[in-house]
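Lab notebook, bench 4. Still working through the backlog of constructs that have no structural model yet. Next entry is a single chain of 121 residues. Request: give me the structure tokens for it.
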Amino acid sequence: MKYILPFLFVLVAVPTFAQETPDLPGIKPKPTLAQCRADSDAWARIDPMNDSKSNFNHDDLQDMVFEMGRCVYGVDAKNKEKYVQVSTTLQTCIALRYYDFLSRHPEMWKPFEKEDAAGQR
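Model written out:
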């Protein structure tokens, strides 16, 4: 269960919390319009099926998802679809990494399958 929660956080909470947020101490400032556009163009080239060659770690990918959300809701709403597509690609990379981890550790995968079959979701 403790390994499923981060997966759920990425798929559900990150897009929700990535909406318009104030600039708070310890939180990165809102990206600029130029940064949103440049980063989305660069990150759109990431291929989830070849993510193993990526230099980005899990935290990097989560930060990128968060930035794309802030671009949608606080900087450049007129290009929403572009940022949402990039965010979806990044979230796919994260989800596939979780799946790959669980596949490499069957002792963690079996309880997930058992609980899921029992309706624990």
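Notes after review: The chain has five helices and no strands. Residues 80-104 form the longest helix (25 residues). Flag for follow-up if needed.
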